[in-house]
Amino acid sequence: MGKLINGIFGGFHGRIGNLVGYTLKGKYIIRKIGRSSKPLTPGRKANCQKMTVVNEILSPSLDVIRAGFRLAVAGTDKNEYNEAVSYNKKNAIQGVYPNISLDYTKVLMSMGTLPVAIHPTISQTNEKITFNWEVTDDQAYQYGNDRAMLVVYFPNLKISHCDLIGSKRIEGSHTLNIGPEYVNERMEAYISFVKDNGREVSDSAYAGALNTHKTLDISEKTDSETECSNRDSDYAGSDFDIISYREYLLASGIGVPEPKSGPDKIITSRWSIYVLKSRASDQRIGDCYLRFKQNDKFTAEMKVSIAPEEQRKGYAKEASSAMISLLFNKSEVNRIVKIVDAQDEAAIALLKSLGFKEEEYFKDSVFSDGKWVSEYQFALLKSDWK
């Protein structure tokens, strides 16, 4: 129930029908809530994916975002987090739908007028992540007492370790401790500086990445009776082949950027891509993504993306089935997990049709498109796969 503020001429707080009212920085805001029954256009789908990708790094770094963008929105009715989303959505996105991703080197965690960190770097010694930067004589004199604000983001886990009050700029170094369970995880790092009185902040600077190329072999199994090897191309749909991204690049004449991402490798700290290639048109109609859980060769994650014009043809189920068989037949994987939006009825129905069982419910676990989204975790055991 909504409540009128200052009589009939004021705003209201709360919910009335499909409207919700609230106050933001002294202004009355009214928003419409609810889901549209209209199918998403390609443009809206691309926008949703951009929002998801940006929120994945900003949401777990919320305290840094609030401090880093506070001065950028001072005196306006803008929100720090929304300002950060807007900037990174415009400047840190790469690729086109449905293969939109984040360019970590262009992500901004703070925005201000102080001098940025000069030649920042990171290094790792077990659980200690050390940031280093250069300090010029003029900076040491004028900005020496600025405090470092540091972020280490773990893309595969979608969490961040932050330090809002680090070493002074003049010290040129700061060490951030992480837990032993994160030592081998991929990391992306950022550093900003904040005036000792809190009244100025610098743009953040990208400090580098760690553990970006750890790989884990998937051994090929051979049927002793037929002497046939279960290569990736043996797993396919009725109208398409599934090939490794490396094979796709070679066939397209594009070249292979990373020699270690071959068809019999799966990238541990990143998604490994398999391409759905139409037999009729020889065009790319979708992608499959696989990865092992860090330090757990028995658990894998999987997702499938189908081009908008090729959807509703049963390709998602066919491709998912092929990828499940690939994991269970060519690796030691015993369990495949998948996390989905609790409101995504189509995805949930697909998982159930493949034999996945609901394991956990995460309420308001992801901040996406200006709201908190709940999720389900499903899992499939090798013993349950037919």
From TrEMBL:
Keywords: Transferase. InterPro entries: Acyl_CoA_acyltransferase, DUF6266, GNAT_dom, N-acetyltransferase. One of its GO terms (molecular function) is acyltransferase activity, transferring groups other than amino-acyl groups. Transmembrane segments: none annotated. Residues 216-374 form the N-acetyltransferase domain. The keyword Transferase applies. Pfam families: Acetyltransf_3, DUF6266. Signal peptide: none annotated. Gene3D superfamilies: 3.40.630.30. This is Acetyltransferase (GNAT) domain-containing protein. It comes from Pedobacter steynii.
